Amino acid sequence: MKPPEVDRVAASRAAVAARRARASVKNAVVSGERSASSVVTVGLADKDTPEAGLRVRELLLCIPGLGPVRGDKALEKLAISPSKRIGGLGRHQQVKLLDYLAVRAPGTGYALPPTEVSTKLVVLAGPTAVGKGTVSTYIRENYPDVQLSVSATTRAPRPGEVDGVSYYFVTDDEFDRMVESGEFLEWAVVHNQSRYGTPRSPVRRALREGKSVLLEIDIQGARQVRASMPEAVLVFLLPPTWDELVRRLIGRGTESPEEQARRLATAKVELAAQDEFDFRVVNNKVDEAAREVVDLMNIS
Ligand SMILES: Nc1ncnc2c1ncn2[C@@H]1O[C@H](COP(=O)(O)OP(=O)(O)OP(=O)(O)O)[C@@H](O)[C@H]1O
Ligand SMILES: Nc1nc2c(ncn2[C@@H]2O[C@H](COP(=O)(O)O)[C@@H](O)[C@H]2O)c(=O)[nH]1
């Protein structure tokens, strides 16, 4: 009999293959003048193009595999009226629609390669001190094909953290401005303390270029990404044991005892949410955990 670890990895791979197959069917490229590609390439924001007069519903129905029922559901989810025309979309509606098209409409200016949609965007979440940052850094250093998203945060830098690499360290006012102008793909108050957010445009740009993108964010953020980009793969990083998690948090030595207690309280809530995720990876050894995460992407 195979050891359970091997079975788990095999099951993960089978599930990814199934997701990929579903995505590639959904995104099969069609030809013809009403294909999604003929409609969207000009850019949704440009009100002077002929496409501006097209209804969003008509645009969605051009996407292969998206019939009227699913198209209307998508519109409901995007909070866009079926009668709305592309040229009449507000900024937030445009942004949401572009995110949607980025994963659903291959061959457009916003598209991903048709067969690699489902595993291009991977979200890595998990409780405090489980090693998300360590595993992500290992991936950045050893798998250059994976683009790591750099978050913005209102928390102060820790010793050794570099602005623009670890995070973009911003003031509360700057964070407010970014929220207001819709610059975040997702954002959240984490550990009831500071705000953290994923800048939207680098993620979208990388996906458009066909790159794999890794977001290392908290569970609230993971839920938001799932809601707006359902093709994203959500991975939950687990500690070998609770005691080891506590050891790692204390051993890191970057938080006060009060902050450690706050983070451990959040960790209990977060661990209870692990079933919402597509995959669970135990961080015993950093290189092995990193490999397991990268294996979920379509790269070597
Ligand atoms: N596989 C591992 N084995 C032993 N120690 C580890 C392992 N992975 C990470 N660590 C250590 O655990 C501590 C916490 O790791 P890290 O800062 O990466 O966690 P994190 O999940 O990003 O935490 P947070 O959510 O609080 O930012 C660090 O001191 C790190 O060196
Ligand atoms: N929702 C988001 N959560 C994020 C983002 N960037 C990081 N995080 C999470 O915050 C906590 C705390 O991080 P720390 O660096 O202060 O220890 C951790 O769980 C990160 O994953 C983000 O952009 N959005």
Bound molecules: adenosine-5'-triphosphate, ligand LQESDW3C
Separation, N- and C-terminal Cα atoms: 28 Å
Order of helices and strands: HHHHHEHEEEHEEHEHEHHEH
Average pLDDT rating: 79
The side-by-side strand order for the widest beta sheet comes to: 2-7-1-8-9
User: pLDDT below 50 for ≥5 consecutive residues: which ranges?
Assistant: 1-46, 106-118
Structural class, by secondary structure, is: alpha/beta
Give the domain tally: 2
CATH topology of the largest domain: Rossmann fold
Spatial shape: globular
CATH class of the largest domain: Alpha Beta
**Strand segment tally:** 9
Question: Any overview of this molecule?
Answer:
The protein has 300 residues and is α/β, with parallel strands linked by helices. It folds into 2 domains: 8-112, Helicase, Ruva Protein, domain 3 (Orthogonal Bundle), CATH 1.10.8.50; 119-295, P-loop containing nucleotide triphosphate hydrolases (Rossmann fold). Helices cover 45% and strands 13% of the residues. The chain has helices at 4-26, 36-40, 56-61, 68-78, 91-104, 132-142, 172-180, 200-208, 219-228, 242-252, 257-271, 286-295, and strands spanning 121-125, 146-148, 152-153, 168-169, 184-190, 194-199, 212-216, 233-238, 279-282. It has a 5-stranded parallel sheet, sandwiched between helices. The chain has a 4-stranded mixed sheet with strand order 4-3-6-5. A hairpin with a 3-residue loop joins β5 and β6 (194-199). It starts with a helix and ends in a 5-residue tail after the last helix. The site of the ligand Nc1nc2c(ncn2[C@@H]2O[C@H](COP(=O)(O)O)[C@@H](O)[C@H]2O)c(=O)[nH]1 has 15 residues, from β5, β6 and α9. It catalyses: GMP + ATP = GDP + ADP. Keywords: ATP-binding, Cytoplasm, Kinase, Nucleotide-binding, Transferase. Belongs to the guanylate kinase family.
